[in-house]
Each structure stands twice: as C-alpha cells, then as structure tokens.
Amino acid sequence: MYRQVDDFLKEWAVAVKGTLQVLQAVTDDKLGQSIFEEHSTLGWLGWHLVETTGYFSHLAGLTVPMIGQDEPVPATAREIVAAYEKAAEAVKEEVAKLSNEDLLTETGLESLATKGSLLRFLIDHQTHHRGQMMVLLRQAGLPVPPVMGPTKEMQ
Q1: Other C-beta atoms lying within 10 Å of the C-beta of residue 125
Q2: 30 close to 42: Cβ distance less than 8 angstroms
Q3: What is the tens place of the pLDDT at every residue in 56-78?
Q4: What is the per-residue DSSP string for 9-29?
Q5: How much is the pTM?
C-alpha cells in the first residue's frame, strides 16, 4: 500500500519502463504466441495491461482513458505500445495531483480498501502479466529484455 504519492510515482516510473521494454520486444508476427492453443497470447496480454491500467485507475477515482473489455486486440504491436504509453502517462499525471492523504481514501472495495492499496495492486498486476509475457517472448524466439536483471541475451 502506498502512503506517499512520491513513492508510487518512483515505482510507477520503474514499472512503466520495464513494461515498455517487454511490450516493445513483441513483433507483429508473434502477437498470437501463446503457451498453448486457446490460452493468453502476447497480444492479448499486452492489450490487457492497457485495459487494466485504465480500469484500476478508474476504481481509484483517477481520470485515465479506459478501453472496454470487448475492444479487440490491435493488429500491430506498435498500437499496443502507444496505447500503453498514453495510459501510463495519464496515471502519472493523475496520481501527481493527489495528496498523501488521498491515498488513504477508502475505495469501497473490500480487498483493495484504499487508493494506496489499489495503486499497489496496479503495479503488482502489471508485474505478474509482464512475467507471463517474458516467458512467451522466450518461447517465440524473441529477445527477452533485462527488466529486473540480466537475461540470456546479455551473455
């Protein structure tokens, strides 16, 4: 849970940088890569990160562009990157407007009771799916970026 706006903004910058590295490693021809048929694809996971960035921000009372759950995955990796960049920047701008006291405001959600806990979940959720994408990048034969430390590609 975040109690200081600056703490979130610092971690958000690191999380966004890592997520962008993963999203930018995806190629158009590998958007359909999944662990096995009818499972989450690289394209779906990337688009899900865009979707949930807006959704969780909305739950926290922030004005961040949202896409609907029924919006189809874009045809190009670049479109996903651009949408994520836009959403991530909006989160940064909106959270910067909050006070530290605002982070303690109740959300009405039982498991994510405050804005600060909801913002922590946003980063955790993003990290979870970014990890899934890194496995799929490796499976697809694409380079895995060194998001949280060295990867095979750095040897």
Answers
A1: 16
A2: yes
A3: 999 999 999 888 878 899 999 99
A4: HHHHHHHHHHHHHHHHH--GG
A5: 0.93
